[in-house]
Every structure is written in structure tokens, then in C-alpha cells.
């Protein structure tokens, strides 16, 4: 093949190659469409939870910057916060430190008709608390022995318990940390604990490996979510959650709005000066 034909062939192959930008747009469009469909199903789940009195607990654990917050946002952004409650507890107070460890978590468990999502949970003990030395090695070991029994009691009491662990590799976590550093609206996401988790990757790896191995039970299994691709992780995890709950679509009773009342003949508009937000847009 002469040089001219080789050049023509190379140019033809280049022209036929898919445009990365167009492929990205198509994938994003497919993601948005599937997410919208799943959020309709989450709304259907909400109606069923209210009607049936179901109690659901969803735990999200995982690597720092693995996308737990984004996952929870996509689950909850189209439903009522009175049904889907997100629990993200701060560091315990001195009083809470004197309580039984599980005490401050148990008070957040759902009543009938509620879904509680833990953005990190009682698994702080064998995770960050253990690695950072906020608890003793003995207390961590005892927790890992006892928590499967407590979770069994929760399930036996009728609570639907789901545990998801979001994971990313070292390179992706570092990329996301740098993105937080460079983006002013994301800098709040980078806490001192996040920085330590970056430095102590392998300490956390060993702690998480043991945690999952000892608390992955038939009644409360761990489900690992590959979150190197955030959008794929959201679709995969939400799809799995919905497929794991035997909910049914509840018929929506369309309300009869009736007619508005007529303005009373004796109504006089209030002329008291009021403060209005300036229109800047």
C-alpha cells in the first residue's frame, strides 16, 4: 500500500471513529433518563412504605470521596423528608460517649411508614474510630462480634436492613480530593479526617476488610458498590435496592379540587407597606 492510500485510509478511519464528546453526551442523556425512571419507582416505593407501614434502614458506608452523599441525594431528592429521613450524625458529645455505643443510633431507627438512610452508621466504630484511635482495639473487636446479633434482632423485628459499601481505587480517590481542593463549592467536603484517610489508605483497607468479613451475614449482607464511575454506581445501587424490596404500586386517588371560593364583597386589600425581595434575575 503506497503512502497516499495509507493516508487516505487513516483519514477515513479517523472520520469514522466516534466523537468522544458525542459519546459522552449520549451516555449522560441515557443516565438522566434512567435516573428519572428510577426516581419514579422510588416515589412508588414511598407510597407503598406509607400504605404498608414498612420500616426500612439503608446504611451507606465506604471510602472517603466514594460518592455516598451524591448517592443519597439522588435517592431522596424527589421524595418527602418526612418519609425518607437521612441521618448523618456528628462526633458524639461527652454525654453520648458515656452511653452504650448503639444508643444514639437506635433512637433514629424508623417507625412504621419510614425509611431511614444512614450516611455512615454504627460502623464508624470498626472504621474511622478504630483506625484513628478514637476507640480501643478491644472495643472494636467486641463490636464486630456483637453487631451481627443486634442486626439479626432488627431484622426479626420486621425492619428491612440494607448495607452498601461504596469503594473507589486510590487513583480515583486522589483525583476527587484534588477536585475538592480546587473547587470552592466543594472544599467543605474535604475534612481533616478525609486527609488522614488519604494518608492511611492501607490502615483503612485492613479495617474495612475485617469489618465486612465479620459482619457480612445472611440476614444483613454487605453489598459492594464499585463507585469509580459515580453515575454507573448510582444506577446500579438504586436498581439493586428497588429490586430487593417487594413493594407494589399504590393507586393514587386523584383529589377533586372543587371550586375556589369567591372573593368576599367586603374584602379590602391590606395596604400596609411590605418588604419585597428585589428582582435581580
From TrEMBL:
Superkingdom of this protein's organism: Bacteria
Residue ranges annotated for the Polyphosphate kinase-2-related domain, each copy included: 27-251
Cleavable signal peptide: none
A single MF term (Gene Ontology): polyphosphate kinase activity
Keywords: Kinase, Transferase
Keyword set includes Kinase: yes
Pfam families: PPK2
EC number of this enzyme: 2.7.4.-
First-level EC class: transferase
Disordered as annotated region, ranges: 1-23
Described purpose of this protein according to its UniProt entry: Uses inorganic polyphosphate (polyP) as a donor to convert GDP to GTP or ADP to ATP.
The protein's assembly and partners: Homotetramer.
Family: Belongs to the polyphosphate kinase 2 (PPK2) family. Class I subfamily.
NCBIfam families assigned: PPK2_P_aer (TIGR03707)
Protein name in UniProt: ADP/GDP-polyphosphate phosphotransferase
Annotated organism of origin: Paracoccus benzoatiresistens
Recorded name of the encoding gene: ppk2
Amino acid at each position: 500500500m503506497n503512502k497516499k492510500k495509507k493516508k487516505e485510509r487513516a483519514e477515513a478511519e479517523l472520520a469514522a471513529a466516534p466523537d468522544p464528546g458525542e459519546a459522552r453526551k449520549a451516555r449522560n442523556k441515557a443516565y438522566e433518563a434512567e435516573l428519572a425512571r428510577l426516581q419514579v419507582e422510588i416515589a412508588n416505593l414511598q407510597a407503598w412504605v406509607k400504605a404498608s407501614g414498612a420500616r426500612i434502614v439503608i446504611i451507606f458506608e465506604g471510602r472517603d470521596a466514594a460518592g455516598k452523599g451524591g448517592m443519597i441525594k439522588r435517592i431522596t431528592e424527589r421524595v418527602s423528608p418526612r418519609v425518607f429521613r437521612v441521618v448523618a450524625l456528628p462526633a458524639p458529645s461527652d454525654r453520648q460517649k458515656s452511653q452504650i455505643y448503639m444508643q444514639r443510633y437506635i433512637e433514629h431507627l424508623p417507625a412504621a411508614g419510614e425509611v431511614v438512610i444512614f450516611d455512615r452508621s454504627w460502623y464508624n466504630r470498626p472504621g474511622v474510630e478504630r483506625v484513628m484511635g478514637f476507640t480501643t482495639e478491644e472495643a472494636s473487636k467486641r463490636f464486630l462480634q456483637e453487631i451481627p446479633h443486634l442486626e439479626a434482632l432488627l431484622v426479626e423485628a420486621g425492619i428491612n436492613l440494607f448495607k452498601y459499601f461504596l469503594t473507589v481505587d486510590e487513583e480515583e480517590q486522589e483525583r476527587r480530593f484534588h477536585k475538592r481542593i480546587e473547587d470552592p463549592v466543594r472544599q467543605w467536603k474535604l475534612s481533616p479526617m478525609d486527609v488522614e484517610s488519604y494518608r492511611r489508605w492501607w490502615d483503612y483497607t485492613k479495617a474495612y476488610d475485617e469489618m465486612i468479613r465479620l459482619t457480612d451475614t445472611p440476614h444483613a449482607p454487605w453489598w459492594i458498590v464499585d463507585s469509580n464511575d459515580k453515575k454507573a454506581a448510582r444506577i446500579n445501587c438504586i436498581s439493586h435496592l428497588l429490586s430487593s424490596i417487594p413493594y407494589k404500586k399504590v393507586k393514587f386517588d386523584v383529589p377533586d379540587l372543587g371550586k375556589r371560593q369567591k372573593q368576599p364583597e367586603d374584602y379590602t386589600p391590606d395596604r400596609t407597606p411590605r418588604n419585597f425581595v428585589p428582582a435581580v434575575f
